[in-house]
Design a protein that fits this description.
Layout: H1 3-11, E1 64-72, E2 77-86, E3 102-108, E4 118-127, E5 133-138, E6 149-151, E7 158-160, E8 169-174, E9 179-181, E10 187-195, E11 198-203, E12 208-211, E13 215-218, E14 225-230, E15 235-237, E16 240-244, E17 249-252, E18 257-259, E19 263-266, E20 292-296, E21 303-307, E22 314-319, E23 323-331, E24 337-341, E25 346-348, E26 352-354
Parallel strand pairs: 1-4, 5-10
Antiparallel strand pairs: 1-2, 3-4, 5-6, 7-9, 8-10, 11-16, 12-15, 12-19, 13-14, 16-17, 17-18, 20-23, 20-26, 21-22, 23-24, 24-25
Length: about 375
Amino acid sequence: MNFLKRLKTFFNPQQVATVQLPLGENYQPIARRRPVLLPSATQNAYLPITSTQLQPSTHVQPDSFVLVFYYTETGETLARPQIVSGVRGQAFNITEHQFADYYLSRIENYHGYFVYPQAIIQLIYAHQPAAPVIVFHFDENHHLLTSPEYLVGLLGQHYETHFLESRRYRVQHVTTNQVGRFGAHTKIVTYSYRLRHIRWANRYLTGFVRLTTDVVSYRTPNGEPLADKLPVNTIWRVYQKVQTTDRKTWYDLGSQWVPTANTERIDRYQQPQVRTIAAPTFQQAAVIPGSRRAVVDFIPRRALRTWTQPYGDPANYLQHGQIVNIIHGVILANNSVWYELEDHTWLEEHYLRLLSAGQNFPTPIKRVK
């Protein structure tokens, strides 16, 4: 600064001189320095500047910009881009937004320092997986007609279930959530079916019937007959009563069905203390060690009921084709043969197919006392 400029600045301090710096190869723009001037009470003159007031206030201009984009995996924009500016070499942070039904799956071109004059960072979000929807298909006896269906999808995604296409069964009832949207909690859809040839059914009966003659029993109403007849004058508990489309009425005596024509209903039945209708008598052929196995022989994809004792109360269910262990068997006074299974439930012999012992069952046969 020459003498004239200094003199001019002295009489007019509001005009501050600047110095033109030489421009080099690595030149970076620097803000102009301006001293802090304190006005006097008269507003016509200025107080003298102390040494502490001579420190200039500087601000470095940003020379690096980062654009942060928020995309879905399909390229949809979830929010407006974020712009972060700073000086190269300086650290920075970006905002990881949270979006409903989405989670951050990956970040592309991520870096935590300003390196380039311009850079782009992409945050990619994926749909949040939802809890499954489980679909059950039951018949009137709560037997599964097929394996449960598991539907999976994304949160908020639409789902739709369908009934089974069957010539034997028709839909009787379905829960109200047969269609809907996947959510954070598991949903269960239940379809109930009835045999097409059944007009109506009364379930959970507690009465008894007496057979007035030897009666052929069936696996299902109008279905396949079982090998042995049920003896005359035997008393059976009734669990269900149905009528078929041919107006024939059937009783469910526990996984075996008989027509009502040759039965006599007993409302209150108590077995006499002095008479034992089903007194067990044992024979060697019916005594099976715990290692003897059998296959449940019923109806494919159907379940079979077991009992707490011969002609007792219902216990568990077994699937057709399931392999079970037999403890021993008994022959009752009515010549019916029952096998006790490993879980201490009972099943009649015509529902089991014994497997050959061969080399897999070295345990010798033991007589049950």
